[in-house]
Amino acid sequence: MAFVYVSGRPSLDFLGTRKWRTSRPEELLDVPVTFATWAVDAGIVHLPVDMDPDGLRRVLRLREAIYRLVVGHLRGMPWSANDLRILEEEASGPPTGVRLSADRSLRREGDLQSVMSTLARDAVELLGGPDADRIRECDRVDCTRLFIDSSRGGTRRWCGMAECGNRVKAVSYRRRHAAHRPAQPEERAGTMKRRLPHP
């Protein structure tokens, strides 16, 4: 499974592991190993953490709490005390550690608790910092991915060009050209036939 990291913050990329939330929800973290893989690919930890189904349920609980808090911020809605409690509980643990090896390579190490703490802390700093005003939702219909708009004019519309931007532009291009394309003889004949009354 190929995960996408285009949101600009680990906690927002974390939210993207559940896709198409309002139309056809797709869960990418369906088994424990998927989150362990995601955390490595996200650069949060160097090696996959050990986790079981209970750990995955805890991961999903944190993810959905962060999602509701971010959406609440975007819509100007009050935050749930329970979601804040979940976030604070997970953020209170030690984050992943860093180690510099003799070969000058950097390694991030930790267990499930520290990975979750790192994600929770990132969400706390995001929602309580200046980047909170730069959080956007992708403009593609049905895409619910959230991202940080770091463009100079604050005009970024898509979570990513490959994921959504290019597809929307391609659809728009085809529609524009279809609207200006002259009808072929077969199409005109078909239109005339459809307009004729039934015998």
UniProtKB/TrEMBL annotation:
Residues 134-177 form the Zinc finger CGNR domain. InterPro entries: ABATE, ABATE_dom_sf, Znf_CGNR. Coiled coil: none annotated. Residues 175-199 are annotated as: Disordered. It comes from the Bacteria. PANTHER family: BLL6575 PROTEIN. This is Zinc finger CGNR domain-containing protein.
